[in-house]
């Protein structure tokens, strides 16, 4: 099977956009990811998938914790910052949740302790038990579809009544 075809097919699955963060010795590290899912309600478990070449993989293995921030529609630049897509130097603003760094203004944030990790192909799956969470009810999510950022507002406006 062709790698490009596989990527194109996977790109037709619309996802939310998250920033995964962790902290080691006072240094905050983050990366943009859309490979996130809920796993279990009892206990509350979530999963992130991190590529073997990503620096974040070793950082999470070391810290044994991570936070997930679900980005709001207007936070495209934050996503681009943590994806390494911005040329100019920018700083992200962080809040704290359960002592961990989370993206300020995100729709929702979770903090997690790693309870299991599994090697799967060229990625590591980190299952985290949720230790704290918060959300904003009124915000719209940032969406990623077919390699482009989208928002629900634009999508709603394009649908005929």
From TrEMBL:
Lineage, opening ranks: Bacteria, Bacillati, Bacillota, Bacilli, Bacillales
GO-annotated biological processes: pyrimidine nucleobase catabolic process
Gene3D superfamilies the UniProt entry points to: Electron Transport, Fmn-binding Protein, Chain A (2.30.110.10)
The keyword Oxidoreductase belongs to this UniProt entry's keyword annotation: yes
Listed name of the protein: Flavin reductase
Domain Flavin reductase like: 10-151
GO MF, one annotated term: riboflavin reductase (NADPH) activity
Keyword line: Oxidoreductase, Plasmid
């Amino acid at each position: 099977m062709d790698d490009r075809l596989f990527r194109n097919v996977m790109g037709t699955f619309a996802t939310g956009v998250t920033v995964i963060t962790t902290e080691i010795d006072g240094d905050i590290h983050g990366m943009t990811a859309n490979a996130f899912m809920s796993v279990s309600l009892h206990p509350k478990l979530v999963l992130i998938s991190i590529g073997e070449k990503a620096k974040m993989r070793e950082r999470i293995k070391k810290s044994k914790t991570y936070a997930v921030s679900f980005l709001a529609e207007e936070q495209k630049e934050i996503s681009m910052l943590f994806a390494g897509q911005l040329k100019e130097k920018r700083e992200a603003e962080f809040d704290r949740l359960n002592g961990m760094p989370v993206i300020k203004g995100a729709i929702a944030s979770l903090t997690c302790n790693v309870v299991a990790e599994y090697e799967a192909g060229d990625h590591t799956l980190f299952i985290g038990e949720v230790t704290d969470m918060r959300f904003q009810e009124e915000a719209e999510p940032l969406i990623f579809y077919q390699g482009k950022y989208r928002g629900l507002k634009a999508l709603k406006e394009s649908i005929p009544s």
